[in-house]
Amino acid sequence: MAVCIAVIAKENYPLYIRSTPTENELKFHYMVHTSLDVVDEKISAMGKALVDQRELYLGLLYPTEDYKVYGYVTNSKVKFVMVVDSSNTALRDNEIRSMFRKLHNSYTDVMCNPFYNPGDRIQSRAFDNMVTSMMIQVC
Amino acid sequence: MEGLTLSDAEQKYYSDLFSYCDIESTKKVVVNGRVLELFRAAQLPNDVVLQIMELCGATRLGYFGRSQFYIALKLVAVAQSGFPLRVESINTVKDLPLPRFVASKNEQESRHATSYSSDSENQGSYSGVIPPPPGRGQVKKGPGSHDAVQPRPSTDQQEPASPVVSPQQSPPTSPHTWRKHNRHPSGGSSERPLAGPGPFWSPFGDTQSGSSAGDAVWSGQSPPPPQENWVSFADTPPTSTLLTMHPASVQDQTTVRTVASATTANEIRRQSSSYDDPWKITDEQRQYYVNQFKTIQPDLNGFIPGSAAKEFFTKSKLPILELSHIWELSDFDKDGALTLDEFCAAFHLVVARKNGYDLPEKLPESLMPKLIDLEDSADVGDQPGEVGYSGSPAEAPPSKSPSMPSLNQTWPELNQSSEQWETFSERSSSSQTLTQFDSNIAPADPDTAIVHPVPIRMTPSKIHMQELELKRAGSDHTNPTSPLLVKTSDLSEENKINSSVKFPSGNTVADGYSSSDSFPSDPEQIGSNVTRQRSHSGTSPDNTAPPPPPPRPQPSHSRSSSLDMNRTFAVTTGQQQAGVVAHPPAVPPRPQPSQAPGPSVHRPVDADGLITHTSTSPQQIPEQPNFADFSQFEVFAASNVTEEQDSEADKHPEILPTEKASDPATSLRIAQADGKIEEKTAASVPANVSKGTTPLAPPPKPVRRRLKSEDELRPDVDEHTQKTGVLAAVLASQPSIPRSVGKDKKAIQASIRRNKETNTVLARLNSELQQQLKDVLEERISLEVQLEQLRPFSHL
Fold it and tell me: What does the protein in this record do (chain A) (predicted)?
């Protein structure tokens, strides 16, 4: 469903970013980058409450003409950003949530790997497969 | 065709070939194309091939059935051995070597030849036996190898299949060879099979990774390599592990043979589930893995933490990326630690990787952690079972190229697992929401739960508790008790009477029940006050402890209880209530018997009331009239004598108006004390007297207070008169109640109803009194403030 999926580290540098249409990748990269501001804004808005009460799923960050950007933040301030084609109207909020959940689970699996150094780019094949599955569904 | 007798080796060999050719998995017919390739690989002249086909009957039938296929193979062997092709030669030729099929890839052969040259033992009379396996392997790998030698156009078609098939074929061949070795020691050619595929490995490994399946077979099958590979962990990895394997295998035939013996035991199973063989762990390998596990973690049931595993596997000098992938594959439960199974799987994968095999996309079946204890040899046996368990996932490991299939396989798993995760998380989230809901709901209960004093008890104790509850939620009580008001006035009166009667015993019933009744006659008021007092003095507003249902002795005491009530009411009302009474509710039947107890009851009641309401004037003022009312009511109820009631009812109205303004309480008291109307008439005087006579000191006080507050209480009295009127009505209706009773259920029920109504009335009265109390208190406060304001001036 997603056109572009990105995993951003706490320091706001990308750990993993992939887009389906290989062309115009720069456009998606830019969209993800701008969405980080929105993510930070949403995080700070709920900053008063305890972190636990803050919901991980941020929802629609901002829509553009062609795309909609959704966000998800983990408790360790790792952000997942997903760009979805606006023409894909079949996507419900629950589906987006489930996709983020899958992403989160795969990410935790990657973290569990002792050979993975936190902060490195994610090069796990399982993670790639999972992301591909999510993106292939679009096409 | 003649019957074909095959030796065991031949049988197995042929079946393998048949399954190889049976790409359509029909199990009965092999594809002609594949068969033809096979025959061409046999390096036989075409005419011979055609002859074979004719002989076996394929040309006649048009297809290769299993029997035809076997016959054809036999004929191929015959032809290869140089015997003339005859139908009879099928069975006549004994000790026929297995048909030999060589790949048409001459380059491979040359390569093999060169590599074989290094092997001194490439030979053997059983070259017929030996070559087939490597040849077979060649055949398989030929089509399997995408890049290297593919002269055949059909290889493209076979590519997808061969990677699957090749592992099927090659493994059986190895057991064949090894078995042959055991049987025919002539073959130092044991190396040949190993060597054969060995060289294959290097070229294939260099050229293309698709043949990893076949390579994996050998790596899985050869124990010596693992030893060396394991050694390589500590040392620098040999550049050509494959070649080292071969020399080692060459040198250590016994090891091979032992392995062969082990493999032969599993040969049959391997044939059936051959495609998983590449990843099977042999016993020796397993033992080695277990030993290594022990060096890290002595407890075989324990875990190896991720950090320790990282150090260990880093020694293998594999790239971190590959180690990471191996970890992903082997850590089955994703817990960051390796169990024995996971460790063996990881170790095996490392070994395979070091041998040049590419890592699979998905963990092979044989490497999946098993539930049973893997230290047993049963593992090896189980592996084939698991292998044969599912074909599709097993295809994934051998096939490197098809990434999509693996994706497709992972897809449903992901979807399923994700669905599971989704449901899980959804459940958890829903549970969270549920908990939130619960927490919100919880606090609301206590008050509301307590507010419903519905269970009206007849026992005084219960009534007392209920009255307490009612007091606490006075406003609320009005509502529940209002329905009671709706009841017939007769019933209400009766209930009131009864409640009032019972009241004295507990001093609770009346108040509790009749708070909202319009009935709040003196007895009720008194009762309520009394109970209030008692509640104040006794229990704190404990709404939470509704007393257990009384054992209902009271119903039997409809009469007697009423009498008691009358007594108490009479006492209380008489002493405490001054102006309220008005007309003692109908019939306070002057229960003579109650008189004695009346005062006694009254005394404690009064005492309590006085004790609690030691506060001066305003507080007691409102109470007194109520008490007076109650006392009248009690008196009425206690009588329970129709005549008396009637008379009293008659008299009370008379008394009421007369005594209203002045000494309603006194009149009540008189009634209580004397229990006689006459006394009532002389209420004013005897009231005082009674007050004085009543051994209670307190009683006079209320009297005085009453006197003082009479004026203030007049409005209250008016209200109370109304209430007393209701009481009178009730009492009037009471005469209808048979006195003897206590036994009739109807009477009991009637008394219950009456008591309930009286309770409601009393409850209502109670609330009203409390309101009055509040008002009085406010007045007091204002007065005190004024005093304070004045004092400084006085001081000054």
Answer: May play a role in vesicular transport from endoplasmic reticulum to Golgi.
